[in-house]
């Protein structure tokens, strides 16, 4: 059999299989039809492949998965950032009609092409840092037309960029200034959700369930409808305050709950029981200078599969490089390095229901692989400010680097 690609003599293959990193010291990977065909010890003899890639001195890892971003947006919040550094709070700015709503204004103003070009540029940068799968939320439109505009941008990008894109509808991100909140909640439930589901524009529905956004009861109504429409559900939960979001995520059978820095012990236990994936967003903690930290110790004790994402957006995290988010996970949240790396690979895949396809190096999975110019896997997080990604392979094809 002639294989498509033979990656030879990697110094380490970080498979992410098993409980830890599943590191193979020295080995080869053989790819066929866009998928991993074999993972084996060094210097596989007798393999006929169309292309051979010499990985001597390189560490191989699965492509990184950013399971929580808001990367289609207009405008900038640089002035808001400056105000925050003068002492104003993120929540206070949001309550005064700035924050998310200022990005809503700019996003409504932007044309499809403007949003597309900008998002494509961010995705290119992310690719250079090893991100091969990206979840992207809407939520800066807040009218049917503007939410559909964002989701259509994601759909068009998915056909053009190398990465796999996973679209999430976040119509319930904020109440738009021109509407009363109950009126808007009804609009999301009765108009937007059926339209988005009918057009197949989103795989998941997310709600910002928090003290400055939607209440627990509103979130329940919106996500119940989403479930009825057959969509997967996610929650921004317990970031600014504990409003019972973690418990609600468990009750509703959400695939994941994100932020969680204020989540109660009871909420986390309920999530663990229900199998909800906790998504940590430590780059947001860094960018917002949040003092609260997620209860990693309890999540660890409960055996929860902690995922780590960038939360890339103009207001609460301008971080788009997953190795930096992983470093924040280690340095701020106290993750071990294997936890941080599993967080941006296999556990991130779980948060978007893709762990059968991506997130680890295993025969049968898509060949989304990274070759790192590094002496050992620890360097990815240790040298977080240095981009060690040498080659990016997506579905068996080199899309960046060699
Ligand atoms: O995940 N928390 C809500 N949404 C985003 C913030 C978006 C913004 O500030 O524009 C987040 O942090
Ligand atoms: Fe977010």
CATH class bucket of the largest domain: Alpha Beta
For this structure, what is the CATH homologous superfamily of the largest domain?
A: Metal-dependent hydrolases
**Which percent bin holds the helix content?**
25-40%
The tally of strands reads 16
Could you say which overall geometry the principal axes of the C-alpha atoms support?
globular
Q: Give the total of domains.
A: 2
- Rg, alpha carbons: 21 Å
Strand content: 15-25%
Please mark out the parts with pLDDT under 50 across 5 or more consecutive residues, or reply none. none
Overall CATH architecture of the largest domain = Alpha-Beta Barrel
Main beta-sheet annotation: 8 strands, mixed
Task: Fill in the CATH topology of the largest domain.
Answer: TIM Barrel
Bound molecules: N-(iminomethyl)-L-glutamic acid, fe (iii) ion
Please tally the helical runs, counting DSSP H or I stretches of 4 or more residues. Answer: 15
- Mean pLDDT comes to 97
Q: How widely separated are the two ends? A: 25 Å
Quickly give the structural class: alpha/beta
């Amino acid at each position: 059999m002639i294989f498509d690609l033979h990656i030879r003599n990697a110094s380490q293959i970080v498979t992410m299989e098993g409980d830890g990193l599943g590191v193979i010291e020295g080995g080869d990977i053989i790819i066929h039809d866009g998928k991993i065909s074999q993972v084996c010890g060094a210097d596989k003899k007798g393999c006929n492949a169309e292309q051979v890639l010499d990985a001597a001195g390189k560490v191989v890892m699965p492509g990184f998965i950013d399971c929580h971003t808001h990367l289609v947006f207009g405008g900038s919040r640089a002035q808001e950032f400056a105000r925050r550094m003068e002492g104003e709070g993120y929540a206070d700015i949001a309550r005064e009609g700035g924050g998310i709503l200022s990005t809503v204004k700019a996003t409504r103003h932007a044309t499809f092409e403007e949003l597309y070009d900008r998002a494509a540029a961010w995705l290119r940068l992310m690719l250079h840092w090893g991100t091969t799968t990206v979840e992207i939320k809407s939520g800066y439109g807040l009218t049917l037309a503007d939410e559909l505009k964002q989701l259509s941008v994601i759909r068009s990008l998915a056909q053009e960029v190398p990465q796999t894109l996973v679209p999430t509808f976040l119509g319930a991100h904020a109440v738009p200034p021109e509407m009363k909140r109950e009126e808007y909640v009804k609009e999301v439930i009765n108009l937007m959700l059926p339209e988005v589901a009918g057009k197949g524009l989103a795989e998941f529905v997310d709600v910002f369930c928090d003290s400055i956004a939607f209440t627990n009861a509103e979130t329940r109504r919106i996500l119940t409808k989403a479930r009825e429409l057959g969509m997967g559900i996610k929650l921004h939960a317990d970031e600014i305050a504990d409003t019972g979001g973690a418990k609600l995520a468990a009750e509703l059978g959400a695939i994941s709950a994100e932020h969680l820095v204020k989540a109660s012990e009871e909420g986390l236990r309920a999530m663990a029981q229900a199998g909800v994936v906790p998504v940590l967003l430590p780059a947001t903690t860094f960018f917002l200078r949040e003092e609260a930290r997620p209860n990693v110790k309890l999540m660890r004790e409960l055996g929860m599969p902690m995922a780590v994402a960038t939360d890339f957006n103009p207001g609460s995290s301008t971080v788009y490089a997953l190795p930096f988010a992983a470093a924040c996970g280690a340095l701020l949240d106290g993750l071990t390095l294997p936890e941080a790396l599993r967080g941006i690979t296999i556990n991130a895949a779980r948060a978007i229901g893709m762990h059968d396809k991506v997130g680890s190096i295993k025969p049968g999975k898509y060949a989304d692989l990274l070759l790192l110019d590094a002496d050992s896997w620890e360097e990815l997080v240790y040298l977080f400010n240095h981009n060690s990604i040498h080659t990016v392979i997506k579905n068996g094809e080199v899309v960046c680097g060699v």
